[in-house]
Specification:
Layout lengths: L2 H7 L1 E4 H6 L1 H7 L3 E5 L2 E6 L2 H14 L2 H15 L6 H8 L2
Parallel strand pairs: 1-2
Antiparallel strand pairs: 2-3
């Protein structure tokens, strides 16, 4: 799940409700945004979603991957096609 989807799907709950229903919120496996006086103060994220976010952050630290993304965007904007076989080979599939 992307970060934007996590934020959009997050159920807003106030601090007291979060304290009273923590077990229920965790078991729901849905993101929750904890609010204090109407302002976000914390975020409950399902474990698998958090792993995905950490992996994405790690990838964004890799300059080679960022260069490949930039190059692919340029090629796409220029209307260049990439055969799927080439893509799979590059991905090691």
């Amino acid at each position: 799940m992307s970060a934007n989807n996590l934020l959009r799907k997050a159920k807003p709950v106030n601090v007291r409700e979060a304290q009273a229903q923590l077990s229920k919120l965790i078991k729901s496996k849905e993101p929750s945004m904890v609010l204090s006086h109407g302002k976000p103060v914390s975020f409950l994220v399902p474990y698998e979603d958090m792993l995905d976010l950490v992996e994405t952050i790690d990838e964004l630290k890799d300059k080679k991957i960022l260069q490949e993304i930039e190059q692919a965007r340029k090629e796409y904007a220029d209307g260049k096609d990439v055969p799927v076989e080439h893509l799979f080979k590059k991905m090691g599939l």
